[in-house]
Design goal:
By secondary structure, the protein is mainly α. It folds into three domains: 37 residues, no CATH class; 55 residues, no CATH class; 53 residues, no CATH class. 40% of the residues lie in helices and 2% in strands. It has seven helices and two strands. The protein has a two-stranded antiparallel sheet with strand order 1-2. It starts with 6 loop residues before the first helix and ends in a 10-residue tail after the last strand.
C-alpha cells in the first residue's frame, strides 16, 4: 500500500505536534523534511506569521507591559514582519542610473488629536480630499514631486477610524 501526503500538510502537522510526536515524525520522514518548515531569512516563503518573523530575526515575541492600544501593537508586528521579509543582510543601495527599484512598507499612525490639529491642507492630503493630482481613492494619498526624489501613492490604505 502506498500513502501520499502533501508536504504542506505534513509540515502543518509537525508544527502542531508535541515533542514526542515530532520525534516520531522525524524518525519516519527524516529531519530534513521538517527543516524547510523553520523560518529563515534566506527564504521569505518560510515567514508566514509574526512569530515566524521573530524566530527568523532572533528576536523575542513582543509582550506588552504598558497596555498599548491594539493598533500600535499591530503596527510594531507589521514592521517586524517587513524586516524579516527583506531577508538576511539586505541593504538597498541606490545606483547612479536609477535602474534598481526597492519597495518598502511605510506605516504611519496619527491620533485623533493630531488629525484635528492639522491645518486644512495637511488634513486634506492625509484624507485624499486635497492632493496635487486631485482626489484619489484611498486614505493617506500623497505625492512628493520635484524633491530629491519623486514619490507618489495613487492608492492608499483604507483602514482608518476618526
Amino acid at each position: 500500500m502506498k500513502v501520499e501526503i502533501e508536504e504542506s500538510k505534513l509540515q502543518t502537522a509537525y508544527a502542531n505536534a508535541c515533542d514526542g510526536v515530532k520525534d516520531f515524525m522525524e524518525s519516519l520522514f527524516g529531519k530534513k523534511v521538517f527543516e524547510a518548515a523553520k523560518p529563515t531569512l534566506d527564504d521569505y516563503k518560510t515567514i508566514r506569521t509574526y512569530e515566524d518573523a521573530c524566530k527568523a530575526l532572533g528576536e523575542p515575541i513582543f509582550e506588552d507591559p504598558n497596555n498599548l492600544p491594539n493598533h500600535i501593537i499591530a503596527l510594531m508586528k507589521l514592521e517586524t514582519i517587513s524586516r524579516a521579509l527583506w531577508g538576511r543582510n539586505f541593504q538597498p543601495k541606490p545606483d547612479g542610473e536609477g535602474s534598481k527599484v526597492y519597495w518598502y512598507p511605510w506605516f504611519a499612525l496619527w491620533t485623533k488629536k493630531e488629525v484635528e490639529d492639522m491645518n486644512p491642507e495637511q488634513r486634506g492630503a492625509l484624507l485624499s480630499a486635497y492632493a496635487f493630482f486631485g482626489a484619489s481613492a484611498g486614505f493617506g494619498f500623497l505625492s512628493a514631486i520635484n524633491r530629491s526624489s519623486n514619490a507618489y501613492a495613487g492608492l492608499g490604505f483604507r483602514l482608518c477610524r476618526f
